[in-house]
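Hey team,

Filing this mostly as a record. A colleague (T.K.) asked me to run one chain through the structure pipeline before their review meeting, and I want the input and output archived in the tracker in case anyone asks later how it was produced. No errors, nothing strange. Just documentation.

Input sequence:
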Amino acid sequence: MSNPDQEPRAPKSHHFSARIATILVFSRPLLVFGGMLCAIAVMWRQDPVIYTIGVCLLLLSMTFDLVDGWFAARFVPNAPLAPLADRLMDKLVYSIIFPVIAVGVMWRLIVIEPDPTRGELLHAVFVLLLCVTVLIRDNFAAFMRGFAIRQGAEPAMSEYNRMRTIVAAPVSALLYAYAFHVPEGPPSWVYFKISWLANFPLRGLFFIEILFLVINFGSIAGYCRKYGQACLDELCMGNEALRRRILAFFPNALTVMNAMMGLIAVFFAYQGRVRESYLMLLGAATFDKLDGMVARRLGLTEPLPEEAATRKINLGNLMDDFADAVSFCIVPGWIFYVIMTDYSSARMASLPVGFVAWGYAAMGIVRLVYFTIDKTPIPGFFKGLPTPAAALLVVPPLIILAQAHAQGSDWAPFWAYFAFGLTLFTALLMNCYFIRYLHMGRYMSRNPWITRLGLAVLLSVVTPYFGIVCLIFVILYVLSPLVTWRIDPEEAARESRVETIGSG
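Output structure:
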């Protein structure tokens, strides 16, 4: 006879389904760890069989990630701690696989493809950025979920979070197959199918990775929008100084990206790829604009009342000056030196290329120091040519010179002398403080046709005329004081404030 007080036993099928769901969830880190060991072995021995096994392990882990949620909801509904276990496994898996992929892409660039194309170099840099973003997003999401649960709220599952969960596993498997691909493997249908993934078109990879990057940033922005204010209120407990230090992370991160773009530009210059170096400088200039805009939007530019009487060193301003010195002073001078010394000409052997390169960097740093200590700024204007505009001015002739030199054109000496003279002129123009320059954004908004020309710069990147278009665009800004000198500084400052508020 059965005991009426005894709880009814679950059917055996239920226990079997629960075990299957547990295996699907908890076996994924083991599969990914096996893939990591295979990746290390591939870099050591370059064995196509080990490569095939590693990719199969990642594909199996991807399959488990895609079906475990459906299986648990279908056969084991309301399983205790199932969502938490799934998120923990996701974090563990991606903390392993994406750093491995970043290393693998660099290994492929050095060992498998010792003479990479421009696209492959850019792709390696982009994969590194993507992997860092994934790790930041995972840790940030874990923190925000923990905060929401502590507040008694159920963490909302936004569309970006759902898309990120669906896309992350296939993207990691695809990038793994690409990064550790060993050519000339065994003649099997498994290796043939995997090689198709490894030879995925580069443009398709860029599209998938950009989409994945947008999804990750969208997920971070969603958490900030929903829980950011409440999280700051609890963390800071009315301490405004602490709140500002936390918020300063966002513009400081953009400042660090500014410096990183400058350092990557040096790497491309060493490869003789001036066009890519210039694109990195454009990215650095973009981050330089964004960090100031974000700082103003978050109210971090004005000191606290208790700090106004004391002269404290602002870490954000110090980082910004350092990043500008690297990206817009040292890096353009270095690019100038690398390209000019690579162009060997008997007539130019006597030119002091190294002296001019160091002089340009020094004059740019002097201009930054003056900008920092200037007590009489002109509202809405810069005194002298800003360092980002100067950097974007001196590099386009070097792009044209590199093209002419590669083609054996008779115009190469002309562009070499032109680049030499323009670098000297730009170094002096940065420190001509009696010339005032309207902020680039305000100048473009006042002249819509300049904005259209800016779009032409982006479209011309795939043409041989990229350097010429960029040179014309920046020269127009250099000549802008001939038109903007009539603008009242107070009006320019007022327009800049309105633009900043509206851009948010």
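Quick notes for T.K.: Residues 76-82, 498-504 have pLDDT under 50 and may be disordered. The chain has 22 helices and two strands.
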